[in-house]
Every structure is written in structure tokens, then in C-alpha cells.
Amino acid sequence: MSRSRKIILVLFIASSVFGMWARHAYQQAEKRKREELFRRLSMHNTLRAEATPTPEPIPAETRDMFDSTLPQESLELVRQTVGQDFRLLELWLHEKGVFAKVSTDGQSVKEYRRWTNRKEIDGPVDVVLSGDGKLEDHLLKTSDADLSLVPKVAKEAKERAALPDSKIASVSFKLPFLRYVGEGPEWSVMVESGTPGVNWQNKHVTFDAKGKLKKVY
To answer: Taking Cα atoms as reference points, which of 65, 61, 103, 106 lies closest to residue 86?
Structure first.
């Protein structure tokens, strides 16, 4: 192998490793932000319950977020709350709820949250944008997100991750953090097992918009 080809190969490998590291770091940062959101919401709900009469309870949601029509129903409730056409920056699913970052004007983004134990939609909440590039280049049509695929990608992700006694931690739909020109949105499924701080493990499994496997890492 010529010296120039070796250099190209080394640069390609280094670029791939950096890409994987950057994606992992981004996913972990997002996970920490969500965990902090859950913690704050829990504290907020506790304080509000102490200050106000107990609201009328709603039937407990027994369906699995990742194996039911809950995502479709939740996005429809968000759509009704927004009250006008919008595009998606990100759709994020968790067993406790659905989080949609949307834009109605192509210039700003709001987040709407549908918790499974509440009737009302939380939001809009302002989203602080960072990074270069135009927001327009990162927005998706709601029709791009085929939520009927969630049970399929969740099931396959668990199989591909092959972690002991695993469960789905989250499913997101958005454009990849690092992507090549023309690459479309993807499903990213986080699979986890074990106990944090003891034997916790996790893997991310990605699929294209139509549910075809892309990567396990």
C-alpha cells in the first residue's frame, strides 16, 4: 500500500472514530438533560400538589409507549395544542411521555410535552438553539415520522443490542447529529440494562426513516 493511501486510510479511521465519539457524547448529554428534566418536573409537581387541591385523577396509562399507538395519539394532541401547521426538529419518546420540538415559522423552536399521566399538554417551552447552519435545513415534515414503525424499531433494537434483561430507554426521530450530504432523518433507539452506578449498560441502535437498520454502537 502506497504512503498516500495509508495516510488516507488513517485519516478515514480517525474521522470515523471521532464521529462515533461525538455522536455518543451528544446522546449522553441529551440523556442527562432529560433526566434533569424529569427530576425538576417531579419536584415541581410535588410542590404544586402541596399548594393546590389534588386534581381529578385520570385512569392510569397501562399501554407500552414503545408497543402501542400512544406516540400517534400524543403527537395528535400536540398538533391540536399548536393549532397550526408546524415542522419537527425532533420527536423524543420516553415511557413517561412524548416530547416534540416544533417550529411554526422556520425561525424559532418550541417544545411541547405530553406526559402519559396528565390530560393537558405542557408548552410551549422556548428551545435555545445552538450550532451553525440554518434552522430550515434541520426541520422535518410531520409526515416524515411514521410513528407506526416505533414497535418494530424498538423490538429489533432490543434484539440487535443483545443486552441482558434490557429495556427501551428512549426512541428519537430527527436528522443525524453528524450526517453526509443528502442523508435523511433516522430513528435512534437507546437500549439499556442493569442499574446505574452498578452494572448499567447501554447501546444505541439507529434505523433510517423507513425502519431499515443502519448501525449499532
So the answer is: 103
Q: For residues 119 and 41, what is the distance between their CA atoms, to the nearest angstrom?
A: 16
Tell me the DSSP string of 153-210: HHHHHHHHH--TT-EEEEEEEE--SS--TT---EEEEEEEES-TTTT-EEEEEEEETT
55-59, 71-75, 81-85, 162-166: segment of lowest average pLDDT: 55-59
Report the candidate in 170, 174, 216, 172 with the shortest Cα–Cα distance to residue 192: 170
Q: Please, is 68 exposed, middle or buried when counting C-beta atoms within 10 Å of its C-beta (0-12, 13-18, 19+)?
A: middle
pTM of the model: 0.75
Question: Which has more confidence, 16 or 195?
Answer: 195
